[in-house]
Design a protein that fits this description.
Elements lengths: L6 H15 L12 E6 L4 E5 L12 H11 L5 E7 L8 H9 L5 E5 L5 E6 H4 L11
Parallel strand pairs: 3-4
Antiparallel strand pairs: 1-2, 1-3, 4-5
Bound molecules: tetrahydrodeoxyuridine.
Length: 136
């Protein structure tokens, strides 16, 4: 496990994501997801999945948290926690959006009881990512 985070830091981010998860808008899937993002500057942003009757317009919890941070001028992320009922993994689209802002961001996946299921990095989740470097 990464030495960068303490157990208390892990727990507080997972708890924040799980608390946010209660506000997920999931009338169609009934699969609430909560995310909590900590920036390198120490600010915290939460996100939930927001579904839509036109299904493809649904937005994932991770991207809501990331877009909230970016819209506040924060683009350097230390860690993102993602909580689902069963410790599910971030989707490919969210991995790509995470990769935009750094491959070293730590990703915590936890279940609804708050148990850490996996700790990894964006780099591990999306090897050989297409990044802003490729456009230079
Ligand atoms: N979902 C997320 O919020 N994040 C992911 O990484 C995977 C999927 C949401 C989208 C949809 O509201 C529900 O989970 C089922 O796909």
């Amino acid at each position: 496990m990464s030495q960068k985070l303490t157990d208390e830091e892990r727990k507080s981010l997972i708890d924040l994501a799980n608390e946010a998860r209660r506000r997920a808008y999931v009338p169609y899937s009934n699969y609430p997801v909560g995310a909590a993002l900590r920036t390198k500057s120490g600010r915290l942003y939460s996100g939930v999945n927001v579904e839509n009757a036109a299904y493809p317009q649904t937005m994932c919890a991770e991207r809501v948290a990331i877009f909230k941070a970016v819209s506040e001028g924060e683009t350097k992320f230390e860690v993102i926690a993602v909580v689902t009922n069963n410790g599910g993994s971030p989707c490919g689209g969210c991995r790509q959006v995470m990769a935009e802002f750094g491959l070293d961001t730590i990703v915590l996946m936890a279940d609804g009881a708050g148990n850490l299921v996996k700790e990894t990095t964006v780099h591990e989740l999306l090897p050989e990512a297409f990044t802003p470097e490729h456009l230079k």
